[in-house]
Amino acid sequence: MKYLFLIVLFFPSVLLAQNVGDRKFIQDVATVYTVEQGLPAGPVDQITWEQGTLTALAKGTLYKFQNEAWIPATGKSPSRNIEKVPVPKGTKVLARVRYKNEWAVGTDEGLYLYEGKKPVKVYPADSRYSWSLRNVAALAVDSQGRLWFGSDEGVGYLDGNQWTLFTGKEGLPYTNFTCAAAGPDGTVWFGTERGAIEAQNDFFRYRASRRWLPDDYVLDIAVQPDGTAWIATRGGISRIEPKEMTLEAKAVYFTNQVETRHNRMGFIAQSELTKQFQIGSSQVAISDNDGMYTAMYGAAQAFRYAATGSAEARELAIRSFRACKWLVDITHEPGFPARVIIPADWHEPVNEQYGRAYNKKRQETDPQWKDIYPRFPKSKDGKYLYKIDTSSDELAGHFFFYGIYYDLVAKTEEEKQEVRQVVGDITDHLIRHGYKLTDHDGKVTRWGDFSPEYFSSVYGYDQRGLNSMMMLSFLNVARHVTGDVKYDVEAKKLRDTYKYHIFALHPKEYFPAENVVPWDNNLCLMSLYGLLKYETDPALLLMYRQSLENAWLHISKQKNAFWDTIYEALANYFTRLVDQKTFARTDLFPENHLYAPSVVKNHYRAANNPAYILENLQKIPLDLIGYTIHNTHRLDVVLDGTPGQSEEMGWRTDGLALPVDERAHVRQDRDGFALNASEGDGYSEHEGTFFLLPYYMALYHRLLD
């Protein structure tokens, strides 16, 4: 399949945004080599790049790298200078490097610089620190002639007569050094007992876990002139290449990834790997949120079509719409969306897995678990099974996508009518059942209750902010798409009688910890998109703008491109409304004449840093396998001390979440502050929608200029 990106030359904003997509950046790409690529099991003691040849020493045997494999080679390993240098008696040499035609030697007792053959112990100091070093196990001289060291105290470099020192407070992730090697442009790679660190001036990149290394204990490093780092570990070798790439090229890559490994009958979800870490063993899988993830992919392609004019994007958006509509059309009554559709002969015994015995057992630890059977009813034609007990996640995805698809993709009256039909069916189902998603047993689904009674109950009080806002959003989308004012009447009733708009001012739970789940941020922000975009009442727009700010502030430090993109797009929309004098009226909130001007003043402009959107998009790794990753040991991390919070939550010392390529989660619906986590432990690959949607949405809204 060819992936076309057509620039609409007569549309200046598209041209400007497209240039952003063509701008080059460095994408780190890791390739791991172990037994399957010819290495022996166990440690690789030495790796050397010399005169264009890469060799490794493992278990006393020399290996040469050739055609992406390691082949036993004859001869001796490349020599390393083993010239003996005098050191103080009783010290153990851990590292040495030539520096200014003399030696720098790291020992267990400190760092020594040589004057002639006389070692002089040095005590690095700058304006922040003064150190007597211990265990200087890493030394390197960078391309700018600076001497770098790694010790128990931290990292530092000597530039002329000036020391600069770093600890966790300055962003150093870890110590316990084992080796170091210089690269181009002043970079230095450090090996540690728990990963590798790339240092460049005052910034550190941490490369640990199976995403980057076959084993975290690093034994040796070699760096090519182009910056490619070869890292020898106790479990094999990793190559980390700094590849030039553009956002458009990355989008092509991820579109191909989704289409090749994550498309099941038009539905998009993660895939399963039958062999750990092996992409070649990928097979399509189902998730509880096939509808949401398919809708998000469809929205990505709709924004792509609107921003670039790509015919392929339009085709993919239409396919995604038909898949989402099928989820609604297949079920027991009009308007109830299924979670999943699978062929009747699906390889997993899904109904047996969710039988009555399972449900009763589940209720012992989760009393609200719904006991319904079959959980996968059969379609009327007998060809398919579909999963019920549908949640609010699915609704958020459907309504988010349908509004975007209606505005940006549907052209003909027939195409628009299809959208009107499915949106009307879902919304009418909710209204007909008292604002509840109702299963084939006549009872509400576990997470599909938007009713006033639920919000007044002990089970639903904590959901009322989010679910009230979502219900109002669904009604706004329905009125916009169908043009039917009955949905305005329903929304007015929910506001006037049940105060849904008041509850919506607090659209997301932030405390206690057990009530806070990161995927609710997706539900919240995707629903706010339709709520604000299609609202016409100035008073409500002011309230919903405040709601947006309340929702975003809680996640503003997570560097999540999707959440930041929705926030900034809506905040900019509000700015335009202010500039158009939408709120320059005296009849808004007459009981408190200060409210409207206060909201306008405080929220006139977006409060996010747009650079974080670009940074996140660039750093999303090409490898979306779910790995088990631990970061609580890092020195540059501050643990979250919130009462009741997990001990495995925290952020960098700069107050922001770790870069996405160093986190356990690559999905954009997870908590960026989660330090220790597993997203499949190497047995799943996640879909590239988590790059495509924020990228094309940001491109469409001109947020990457």
CATH class of the largest domain: Mainly Alpha
Report Rg: 29 Å
Question: What is the second-level CATH architecture of the largest domain?
Answer: Alpha/alpha barrel
Q: What gap, in angstroms, lies between the N and C termini? A: 29 Å
Strand content: 15-25%
Q: Major sheet, described briefly? A: 4 strands, antiparallel
Q: What's the total number of strands?
A: 33
Shape: globular
Low-confidence stretches: 1-18
Q: Please, how many helices? A: 18
What is the typical, i.e. mean, pLDDT?
Answer: 94
How many separate structural domains? 2
What structural category characterises the helix and strand content? Answer: alpha+beta
Which sequence of strands runs across the widest sheet? Answer: 1-20-19-18
| Helix percentage | 25-40%
Q: CATH topology of the largest domain, anyone?
A: Glycosyltransferase
Task: Please explain how this structure is put together.
This protein has 705 residues and is α+β, with helices and mostly antiparallel strands. It folds into two domains: 93-234, Methylamine Dehydrogenase, Chain H; 282-700, Glycosyltransferase. The chain has a four-stranded antiparallel β-sheet. A four-stranded antiparallel β-sheet has the order 2-3-4-5, with no helix packed on it. The protein is globular. It starts with 11 loop residues before the first helix and ends in a 5-residue tail after the last helix. Residues 1-18 have low confidence and may be disordered.
